[in-house]
């Protein structure tokens, strides 16, 4: 198991070192180091970048720029990302949060990926090492092979109170998600406008619940709208059977937890 | 296999060691430095027995690529006591029988040390949250939680940090 570790000062250099397609990029290490400890034979070259820009959070042009290497612990305590704190605080335990990065979470397979679900609901923009920007949907498509480059930063607008999140796990604190739900519900003039509701754990990647969104569009957030969204919640999903829950259970409770989340919104 | 030299501060002392490429910090501490306080439990980031404090934050040393701590600071249980005098946190673990088999204890102590450094008067909920990344299969956690709360009450946080 001869592993080579290459360290670069910039992400652009790291990107060039990844060109052969065989190297793996090291973020916080919570996924890659685990594979390495298991002697995963597919890992031969590890690439990392030490650019301090990857650890920055700063407001920029009406959005918050979050460097790819920002950790869950940093997201949870930074003033500019307070709206993401409820998500960051329930990912892993303290040791994982001190290491796990925002970009790493974008590529974390279920049951991980709660932050990716939140960023999908928020309509974040992904910036890659070559400076290109793309909607997070491009990255989250089930068929997608990745960003087409290393992620440099995530840009997201402050939802100003319109973002809501819940995580459903059997063990608290620190249990992994059976499912998690992230919802962006702008209500200009009291009516829901272009809601974005994302389920994590209902498939291999976080996915928008199109039918639930349709059920809420243009309505006020009342009991009838919530009931309609709950009925539609599992539509179009093919959830997994795994050690955490059966597909049947996930279908049954998806609407229940969506209704609880929506009912709790003032 | 290629070896790389790294330097870091270990419980206040400067260390310079050669690490194999891809080695994790737990291996380097145990085999390279000879500090056997961080324990190998799962190698998966699940059990927390390998918890150490890197640059002030609790980290799983088994999931930390050793060369990433080059130039940094690593604190372990081996640095808690002053000579023969245990820290208040260690004393509280003893008086509360917070260790049975003891395998999780070093990780628990480091998670608790990290907590008390930032939050010298934690609530019970904050203590539970702080050790949520550390599994104990013997004690049922109650004795550990009580020990940490007692150490906090006695001002042990500042000395332990």
Strand order, main sheet of chain A: write it out: 4-5-8-6-7
Low-confidence stretches of chain B: 156-161
Radius of gyration of chain A: 19 Å
Walk across the major sheet of chain B and give the strand order.
2-1-5-3-4
CATH superfamily of the largest domain in chain B: Beta-grasp domain
Radius of gyration of chain B: 15 Å
Structural class of chain A: alpha+beta
Ends apart, CA distance between termini of chain B: 37 Å
Number of discrete domains of chain B = 2
Tally of strands of chain A: 12
Number of strands of chain B: 5
Following the backbone from N to C, one meets helices and strands of chain A in this order, namely: EHEHEEEHHHHHEEHEEEEEHHH
Roughly how much helix do the residues of chain A carry, as a percent range?
25-40%
Strand content of chain A: 15-25%
**Overall pLDDT confidence of chain A:** 95
* Number of helical regions of chain A: 11
Give the termini separation of chain A.
Answer: 55 Å
What is the H-and-E element order of chain B?
A: EEHEEEHHHHH
Shape of chain A: globular
Oligomer: heterodimer
GO molecular function (chain B): 2 iron, 2 sulfur cluster binding; metal ion binding; oxidoreductase activity
Organism (chain B): Acuticoccus mangrovi
Keywords (chain B): 2Fe-2S, Iron, Iron-sulfur, Metal-binding, Oxidoreductase
Protein name (chain B): (2Fe-2S)-binding protein
SSE arrangement:
The complex is a heterodimer of chains A (266) and B (161).
Chain A: E1 4-8, H1 11-17, E2 24-25, H2 32-37, E3 45-49, E4 57-60, E5 63-67, H3 72-77, H4 85-88, H5 94-97, H6 102-106, H7 114-121, E6 125-128, E7 133-135, H8 136-140, E8 151-156, E9 163-168, E10 179-184, E11 196-200, E12 207-208, H9 210-216, H10 223-232, H11 247-263
Parallel strand pairs in A: 1-3, 2-3
Antiparallel strand pairs in A: 4-5, 5-8, 6-7, 6-8, 9-10, 10-11, 11-12
Helix pairs in contact in A: 9-10, 10-11
Chain B: E1 3-10, E2 13-20, H1 25-33, E3 51-54, E4 57-60, E5 73-75, H2 88-95, H3 105-118, H4 124-130, H5 142-153, H6 156-160
Parallel strand pairs in B: 1-5
Antiparallel strand pairs in B: 1-2, 3-4, 3-5
Helix pairs in contact in B: 2-5
